[in-house]
Amino acid sequence: QVQLVESGGGLVQPGGSLRLSCEASGFTSDYYAIGWFRQAPGKEREGVADISSAGGTTNYAESVKGRFTISRDNAKNTVYLQMNSLKPEDTAVYYCRRTGNYWGKGTLVTVSS
Fold first, then answer.
1. Cα distance from N-terminal residue to C-terminal residue, the chain
2. CB of 49 closer than 8 Å to CB of 56
3. Residues forming beta bridges with residue 7, ordered by sequence position
4. CA dist 92 to 7, 53, 66, 99, Å?
Protein backbone atom coordinates (compact mmCIF):
# COMPACT_ATOMS: atom_id res chain seq x y z
CA GLN A 1 0.00 0.00 0.00
CA VAL A 2 1.03 3.60 -0.47
CA GLN A 3 3.03 4.95 2.46
CA LEU A 4 4.75 8.25 3.03
CA VAL A 5 6.98 8.68 6.08
CA GLU A 6 8.38 12.06 7.04
CA SER A 7 11.46 12.52 9.20
CA GLY A 8 14.03 15.15 10.10
CA GLY A 9 11.97 17.50 12.21
CA GLY A 10 13.11 18.88 15.53
CA LEU A 11 13.91 21.97 17.55
CA VAL A 12 16.14 24.57 15.90
CA GLN A 13 17.07 28.14 16.72
CA PRO A 14 16.02 31.01 14.47
CA GLY A 15 18.39 31.26 11.54
CA GLY A 16 19.17 27.57 11.67
CA SER A 17 18.61 24.81 9.14
CA LEU A 18 16.89 21.45 8.93
CA ARG A 19 16.45 18.89 6.17
CA LEU A 20 13.22 16.97 6.07
CA SER A 21 12.84 13.67 4.26
CA CYS A 22 9.75 12.02 2.84
CA GLU A 23 10.33 8.34 2.13
CA ALA A 24 7.79 6.74 -0.18
CA SER A 25 6.85 3.11 -0.54
CA GLY A 26 4.13 1.07 -2.19
CA PHE A 27 4.36 2.86 -5.52
CA THR A 28 6.89 3.93 -8.11
CA SER A 29 7.78 7.35 -6.78
CA ASP A 30 9.15 8.74 -10.03
CA TYR A 31 5.68 8.58 -11.56
CA TYR A 32 4.22 11.14 -9.18
CA ALA A 33 4.66 14.72 -8.12
CA ILE A 34 5.15 15.16 -4.37
CA GLY A 35 4.34 18.18 -2.25
CA TRP A 36 5.28 19.43 1.19
CA PHE A 37 2.61 21.07 3.34
CA ARG A 38 2.61 22.42 6.86
CA GLN A 39 0.10 23.16 9.57
CA ALA A 40 0.89 25.56 12.36
CA PRO A 41 -1.06 25.49 15.64
CA GLY A 42 -4.47 27.04 15.15
CA LYS A 43 -3.98 27.52 11.42
CA GLU A 44 -5.06 25.75 8.28
CA ARG A 45 -2.74 23.44 6.40
CA GLU A 46 -0.85 25.26 3.65
CA GLY A 47 1.27 24.26 0.72
CA VAL A 48 5.01 24.88 1.08
CA ALA A 49 6.65 23.40 -2.01
CA ASP A 50 6.13 20.76 -4.66
CA ILE A 51 8.24 18.94 -7.20
CA SER A 52 7.37 17.21 -10.44
CA SER A 53 7.83 13.48 -10.94
CA ALA A 54 11.24 13.80 -12.60
CA GLY A 55 12.27 16.74 -10.46
CA GLY A 56 12.49 19.24 -13.26
CA THR A 57 9.80 21.59 -12.00
CA THR A 58 9.50 23.02 -8.52
CA ASN A 59 7.13 25.51 -6.94
CA TYR A 60 7.31 27.35 -3.65
CA ALA A 61 5.06 29.36 -1.40
CA GLU A 62 6.06 33.02 -1.32
CA SER A 63 6.80 32.77 2.38
CA VAL A 64 9.61 30.22 1.84
CA LYS A 65 11.08 31.26 -1.52
CA GLY A 66 14.82 31.70 -1.32
CA ARG A 67 15.02 29.82 2.00
CA PHE A 68 13.63 26.34 1.27
CA THR A 69 14.67 23.94 -1.47
CA ILE A 70 12.75 20.84 -2.51
CA SER A 71 14.53 17.98 -4.25
CA ARG A 72 14.11 14.28 -4.86
CA ASP A 73 16.16 11.15 -5.29
CA ASN A 74 13.97 8.68 -7.13
CA ALA A 75 16.53 5.92 -6.71
CA LYS A 76 15.90 6.22 -2.97
CA ASN A 77 12.17 6.95 -3.31
CA THR A 78 12.75 10.04 -1.20
CA VAL A 79 11.82 13.70 -1.46
CA TYR A 80 13.70 16.26 0.62
CA LEU A 81 12.96 19.73 1.93
CA GLN A 82 16.06 21.70 2.83
CA MET A 83 15.04 24.55 5.11
CA ASN A 84 17.50 27.37 5.77
CA SER A 85 17.21 30.69 7.60
CA LEU A 86 14.36 29.29 9.67
CA LYS A 87 12.01 31.69 11.42
CA PRO A 88 9.68 31.16 14.39
CA GLU A 89 6.74 31.40 11.98
CA ASP A 90 8.02 28.27 10.22
CA THR A 91 7.04 26.29 13.31
CA ALA A 92 4.52 23.65 12.20
CA VAL A 93 3.93 20.01 11.53
CA TYR A 94 5.26 19.30 8.05
CA TYR A 95 3.58 16.71 5.84
CA CYS A 96 4.32 15.28 2.45
CA ARG A 97 1.56 14.41 0.04
CA ARG A 98 1.25 12.40 -3.15
CA THR A 99 -1.31 12.87 -5.87
CA GLY A 100 -4.40 10.90 -4.99
CA ASN A 101 -4.58 12.48 -1.54
CA TYR A 102 -2.04 10.25 0.16
CA TRP A 103 -0.48 11.88 3.21
CA GLY A 104 2.24 11.04 5.68
CA LYS A 105 1.73 11.48 9.41
CA GLY A 106 3.97 14.52 9.61
CA THR A 107 7.10 15.67 11.41
CA LEU A 108 7.19 18.55 13.86
CA VAL A 109 9.49 21.51 13.27
CA THR A 110 9.89 23.98 16.10
CA VAL A 111 11.87 27.16 15.57
CA SER A 112 12.59 28.82 18.87
CA SER A 113 15.41 30.29 20.91
1. 40
2. no
3. 21
4. 13, 25, 19, 22
15: amino acid identity, one letter? G
pLDDT at 26 over 90: no
pLDDT digits (tens, 9 = 90+) for 81-107: 999 999 999 999 999 999 889 999 999
pLDDT surpasses 80 at 29 = no
Question: Residue 11: what residue type?
Answer: L
> In this structure, are strands 18-25 and 3-7 parallel, antiparallel, or unpaired?
antiparallel
The strand pairing partners of 47, in sequence order, are: 37
Percent of the chain with pLDDT over 70: 99
